[in-house]
Amino acid sequence: MIVLGIESSCDETGIALYNSETGALLADQLYSQIELHAQYGGVVPELASRDHVRKIVPLIEQVCAEAVMTLQDIDAVAYTAGPGLIGALLVGACVGRSMAWALDIPSVEIHHMEGHLLAPLLADDKPEFPFLCLLVSGGHTLLVDVQGLGDYTILGDTLDDAAGEAFDKTAKMLGLPYPGGRYIAELAEHGDVTRFKFPRPMMNRPGLDFSFSGLKTFTRLTWEDNQDDDDIEQLKADIAACFQDAVVDTLTKKCLRAIKQTGHTSLVISGGVSANLQLRETLKKMGQKHHFKSYFPDLKYCTDNGAMIAIAGAMRLEQNIPEKETAIRAQPRWSLEQLSPP
Ligand code: ATP
Ligand code: MG
Ligand code: FE
Q1: Spelled out in words, what is the top-level CATH class assigned to the domain 125-296?
Q2: Dihedral of the CA atoms 313, 113, 153, 199 (nearest 10)?
Q3: 181 CB within 6 A, ligand 1
């Protein structure tokens, strides 16, 4: 089955073609609106919707050209139906449903975070169900017990900011571009991780929840209190290193706690922050010591993309082809736990 995946929940238009029989990604196109929103320091919803409208059809034409196919070769459409920005979601949902209707093929609504959760299945070294999953993105920080496709129990969540959001806010404070996660990681490479002692929020409390707002305040105070430093560039690097270390330490120790609690031996880490190399290295080492294996998406599938939506759609459609529908649905708020198996 050839599945067209459409992602438009936020500021990336991602379109992909996936062949579920061969497990091959046939084509994958991504247009990021980062430059459009950069001058505002964050995503402007109305501008995002308009840019999806401009880019979505050309990108669909591009994936067909890349795979040397026509629209008639597509067997099903999978599109992100939430959570995300309502206007942005509606663009993908309208195009996806309309195409399915016009081509007389099934369509399936995909939860954006299920897409992230399944993105590591696009890699060569794939996890098998069941597994524990850490979803760390711009809007989410979730520890999920994954028993199978659509069978998700949230074990831990953030009480305030998401991990990616904490990276972005710290980056903004240090004058780095948006989204700043990767710039913090770059700066941290030549920072002194021992210079400041950043807090590890929620570590000495039981449970699997996260909190990053206290860390954000601590980072801001450290930055403000050291403005008379002779070497501001080194100060930035040191803060970036200490901040990243605190986030990675908190995330990985909570993963270990969840591994011990659930008895899982596979850990899947996905979402934009899973591109972080220090996070990857720390989990790999921790896994060797504590007998679990970590799986990550390829770096290009950590952040939003159409391929993860295509594979999620293919996996669902393989188990169940839904009745043809003409209703267009998009849900800005939607919990992973509301999903069920196909
Ligand atoms: P959600 O999936 O929760 O709706 P989103 O789609 O905006 O949010 P993603 O695209 O998955 O989030 O990830 C973007 C986030 O990943 C940003 O916050 C960005 O700073 C962060 N990020 C990207 N690369 C890195 C990195 N190397 N280190 C840390 N954070 C990173
Ligand atoms: Mg994004
Ligand atoms: Fe995302």
Answers
A1: alpha beta
A2: 160
A3: yes
Nearest ligand to the CA of 186 is 1
Q: What is the pLDDT of residues 228-254, one digit of tens each?
A: 999 999 999 999 999 999 999 999 999
Q: Measured from the CA of 165, which atom of ligand 1 is nearest?
A: 18
Distance of alpha carbon 45 from the chain centroid: 18
264 is in an annotated binding site: no
Q: What is the pLDDT of residue 175?
A: 95
Per domain, the residue ranges of the chain are 2-118+301-338, 125-296
How far is 151 from 51, CA to CA, in rounded Å?
34
pLDDT digits (tens, 9 = 90+) for 60-103: 999 999 999 999 999 999 999 999 999 999 999 999 999 999 99
State ipTM.
0.99
- Return the bridge partners of 132, or none: 145, 267
114 ligand 1 Cβ < 6 A: no
Q: Looking at ligand 1, which residue's alpha carbon is closest to its atom 10? A: 303
Per the annotation, does 180 bind a ligand?
Answer: no
